[in-house]
Input
Amino acid sequence: MSDITAGSAARDPYRVGRSGGHGHGGHGHGGHGHAGHGHGLLSATGHGQGGPASKFVTVAYGFWIFLLSDIIMFSAFFAAYAVLSTATAGGPSGKELFELPRVAAQTGLLLTSSFTGGLATLATQRRSMAATQFWLLVTGLLGAAFLFLEVQEFAVMASEQAGPSRSAFLSAFFALVGCHGTHVGLGLLWLGTMMAQLWVKGFRPEILRRLHCFGLFWHALDIIWVAIFTLVYLLGASP
Amino acid sequence: MSDIDSRTDEELDRRDSAPGEERITEHELAGGLSGYLLGFGLAILLTIASFLAAQTGLIYQPAVISALVVLAIAQMGVHLVFFLHLTTGPDNTNNVLALAFGVLIVALVVIGSVWIMAHLNLNMAPMSAHQARMMP
Output
């Protein structure tokens, strides 16, 4: 039942096509003289009418719910960091540790990779294999550069005796930023998988769904990074 | 292509939008390549504004936190509108409602934690000299 047109009564077991051509809520009780023999031309948008949504919509919506729950998990890490950001236990504070030029480079890299991910989406809509693969590759390389800078930062901090075990502040910092970095790393793995699948299988419906979900994931990671570079780095390093 | 392509425009007009799906690309400011370029430019401007607010004395110091939070929320909005194609249209109602619920939970978790922990900190009994010496 991926078809939403609900053409005849036989294909419309819930009689959703009976409410006539209005579809402005309230009118959906049938008995308007429209027997369900038409072609179900009702403006069902936003009213849950018109039969089951297509698989593209339900898959993307399910992934949207996952992303929101992921952001709620991040909010717990943000709350822990906000509470513990002053608990340095005599160790180094954010002002001494954070290097804003690196953070600015990371922000630029991730923002640009979000943009090129959007260009890949546009190329997918044109069904251009070469352009899609190219922009996905650029997206992946920018994400990898972002991850390289983050690993470098963690390595420098660990070598300065400012690892996650030094203070509650640093534990919360590594948990929050490391969690985001893990997401980016997993996203890169997913991106490589999608490039291979797209190359082998072409623009098939399930590949298009997965590409769309990957795009949602990548944009959501950039939104979380906006909160991290503002609340963790800029606020922590401001005088 | 049965899911996406074989639809007529009329059918497309009547169904809900998937999250992040862009349906109207013509005659729309936030549509197509121009939409991505506009969003990219706005995000860059807001990022630069955030760094300037934090690193220079342009803004009255106690207000820097508020300025940064406002700029961050604005940038998240830019991402949602221009990159995730969230609209106020009826085809996006489900997506916006789910997002609103997520934002509610996030606000409860973050603001609630900060609020409660600040109060606990404030109402803590003062530490004795002995306890201070035993601190790790």
